[in-house]
Design brief:
Glutaredoxin; alpha+beta; FAD/NAD(P)-binding domain
Length: about 525
């Protein structure tokens, strides 16, 4: 049997699920090859950030995630004596329109995404198919996959490897890996309590040099405890159930109070592929990068990969963009992932200190900083939300024009009796957000429509809904008009992954902004 598709995705974890949904929602035929016959029944990631929540909402699953998610709430570091070193509480309403951090039960997340995928007629998921070889031939890739009963070939215009750290697709891309040479061994324990319990703090890191350990929410009804392997211990002895319960007893957990769903010893990794594309084969998620879990950006980074890749592939497949638009995918995502890996390592070294003298020095430094009113900034608080090179507006010299590259905020808007977050009211795609001062030429309007875009004029809160035109919305939360004002812009052009392509600084600049978008989408090979 030969299956022809626009895209074959290898791997159906959260990254493959999000990417397949975003493409199938745009009408493209997608075949997914997943090696395991059944979804993995245990959690791995336990949270996603506000940007991840916005991308998941774009997949149409926000309502379905409610039963398997909860606010992450407070996250506290304590030392061995119980002193508070650092306290963080992510906002319940962040700049993306969603909580800045949401705890989730990953099998529940995957079930919701799987149900959404099953609703899309152009998406087919084949479980129990192990991709073995890939061969690029002219304008297609042939993927040979083995199931329990046969070996079959699948052809597609593009193949995306979302198949994890041991990616088969990455082997065929032929890239080397930048290895950060940082790893630690942790015993992870996924637990269900027999009786509901309120945890304060909800997420706790104990920076005890004798046994660094962690307790976090893993979604409603689920929690995770983690324990660092310290010098003198072996992985085998940590993986013994008696040892597990001795560790859980540090948190007053006993078998009569909780069910141990899973325990395992895992080794953190830190590496990033140097190339994310070879011809018609691309990488996303753990196939492209792996990082320690200390800032919770592993799955989030993969979801960003999916969002950044989906709109590019959509336009290439629709004939509205040249293949060179895919070159900026690697440039942008690698530049974001590498600092995230480095931040994870930095935090890991702080949390995993097992030398009592060094740990005491760390505690003194952090506590003295708090007393001085200059608390130490956790690495994840300093992660950039700006793209500095890639698919962005440039001047005649090729220099990126500010504020291009900013991750744009989201607020509530109202249009024609509908009130909600901007993405849900306006829709996905390139969005030209303007003030009343900006006019859109008819041919530019046609171009935006051709690429699935939307022109939207924002009006101030208090505007009577009856005064709105068909392309107008009321800025209920006062997010968009101040943003335009701060950018000294009459219009901003937002990409489908919510990053700012560029701004127009006067009415006459709007056509030039759209012309630059058109030129970059259709740039010939060798021109960026």
């Amino acid at each position: 049997m030969q299956t022809n598709a626009d895209v074959v995705i290898v791997g159906y974890g959260p990254v493959g699920q999000v990417l397949s949904i975003l493409l199938a929602q745009r009408g493209h035929s997608v075949t997914v090859l997943e090696r395991y016959p059944e979804p993995y029944p245990m959690p791995r990631a336990v949270a996603y950030d506000g940007e991840g929540a916005r991308i998941l909402a774009a997949c149409g699953v926000a309502a379905g995630l409610v039963p398997v998610t909860e606010l992450t709430r407070d996250y506290v570091w304590r030392n061995a004596a119980g002193d508070v070193l650092m306290r963080m509480e992510p906002p319940a309403h962040g700049r993306h329109g969603w909580p800045e951090s949401t705890s989730m039960y990953q099998p529940g997340l995957e079930a919701v995404l799987g149900a959404r995928g099953a609703e899309l007629p152009t998406l087919r998921v084949l479980r129990g198919y192990q991709a073995e070889t890939l061969a690029e031939r002219d304008d297609q890739v042939v993927v040979r996959a083995r199931s329990a009963t046969a070996t079959e070939d699948f052809t597609a215009a593009w193949v995306i490897g979302c198949d994890g750290a041991n990616s088969v697709v990455r082997e065929h891309v032929g890239t080397s890996m930048a290895d950060y040479r940082f790893s630690t061994d942790w015993l992870i324990c996924d637990v269900r309590l027999h009786e509901e319990q309120e945890f304060s703090p909800n997420n706790l890191q104990i920076c005890d040099p004798a046994r660094p350990r962690t307790a976090v929410s893993a979604g409603p009804g689920h929690r995770r405890w983690e324990f660092l392997r310290v010098p003198g211990e072996t992985r085998d002895e940590m993986d013994d159930e008696d040892f597990v319960w001795r560790m859980l007893a540090l948190f007053d957990l006993t078998p009569d109070r909780a069910t141990l769903d899973r325990h395992a010893v895992y080794t953190t990794q830190a590496a990033c592929a140097n190339r994310w594309r070879s011809g018609r084969m691309l990488l996303a998620g753990d196939a492209a990068h792996v990082m320690p879990p200390f800032i919770g950006q592993g799955m989030c980074s993969g979801i960003r990969d999916a969002a950044a890749l989906a709109w590019r592939l959509d336009l290439v497949l629709a004939g509205m963009a040249g293949e060179t638009v895919l070159d900026s995918y690697t440039i942008e995502r690698r530049a974001h992932v590498r600092p995230a890996i480095e931040a994870s390592i930095t935090l890991g070294k702080v949390l995993c200190e097992t030398d009592p003298v060094k740990a005491a020095g760390r505690d003194t430094f952090i506590m003295d900083s708090r007393r001085r009113g200059t608390p130490v900034q956790a690495p994840q608080q300093g992660l950039s939300d700006t793209i500095r090179n890639g698919f962005l507006r440039r001047n005649a010299d090729g220099v990126i024009v500010a504020p291009a590259g900013h991750l744009t905020p989201q607020g509530r808007v109202q249009r024609e009796g509908t009130t909600g977050l901007f993405d849900q009211v306006v829709g996905s795609g390139f969005t030209l957000i303007t003030t009343a001062a900006a006019e859109l030429r008819p041919d530019d309007r046609v171009f935006l429509d051709d690429i699935g875009g939307h022109p939207v004029c924002v009006r101030p809160a208090g505007t009577p809904p009856g005064d709105l035109g068909s392309d107008e919305v009321i800025d209920l939360d006062g997010v968009y008009l101040p943003y335009l004002s701060d950018a000294d812009a009459v219009a901003i052009l937002v990409r489908p992954d919510f990053y700012l392509f560029g701004a127009a600084h006067g009415p006459d600049d709007v056509p030039a902004l759209i012309a630059d978008l058109r030129a970059q989408l259709l740039a010939p090979a060798g021109v960026r």
